[in-house]
Amino acid sequence: GQNIDQPTEMTATEGAIVQINCTYQTSGFNGLFWYQQHAGEAPTFLSYNVLDGLEEKGRFSSFLSRSKGYSYLLLKELQMKDSASYLCAVLDSNYQLIWGAGTKLIIKP
Amino acid sequence: IAGITQAPTSQILAAGRRMTLRCTQDMRHNAMYWYRQDLGLGLRLIHYSNTAGTTGKGEVPDGYSVSRANTDDFPLTLASAVPSQTSVYFCASSERASSANEQFFGPGTRLTVL
After folding, report:
1. Distance from C-alpha of B102 to C-alpha of A42, rounded to nearest angstrom
2. What is the full per-residue pLDDT of chain B (114 aa) written as tens digits?
3. Which of A107, B71, B72, B73 shows the smallest number of beta carbons within 10 Å?
4. Which residues of chain B have a CB within 8 Å of the CB of A41?
5. B-chain residues near A91 (CB < 8 A)
């Protein structure tokens, strides 16, 4: 079966760095997405990785290792507005997105 | 403003009633999707459409139907609602199907079936 695993909840301090991990087992792989979802709102796109390595975009970076079935999202200089759920999703062999349950990130002052 | 709209925002529905959730996009995207989101679970694909005139079944299609008469609209119908269909429903679109294009999401419809 297809499976995406990510921690249910994480807590971090304003100004710090946090790493949210995602491991996956899917039928085929055409890339991995990270989305941000604030409570009561729609998911919004953060990043896409299809090749191994680190993609940096401002305070957010995303890493992929295809051989390990592993990705992480790194958030630097945390701000209170970063409190949200972070969703990991893999594009499978049929180009359908398989979604993890999301990691709720709580930022404390 | 370009994007995706959904209606209604929320709805309380009696079991056994028929309900259509509306979704409209103005980005001229070819592909559209319906997901449901339940606490503790990832987004699950109900139905999708790769282009106007075609539809396909996702992971959890039972009890739902869709149509895609034109590019912009992709309504989701619950023929006879059951309590297990209580969920938040998101419509999404992407420029092309079978590609790595990001998906854009509507604001969601919160549906409660009693």
Report:
1. 14
2. 669 999 999 999 999 999 999 999 999 999 999 999 999 898 999 999 999 999 999 999 999 999 999 999 999 999 999 999 999 999 999 999 878 889 999 999 999 999
3. B73
4. 107-108
5. 100
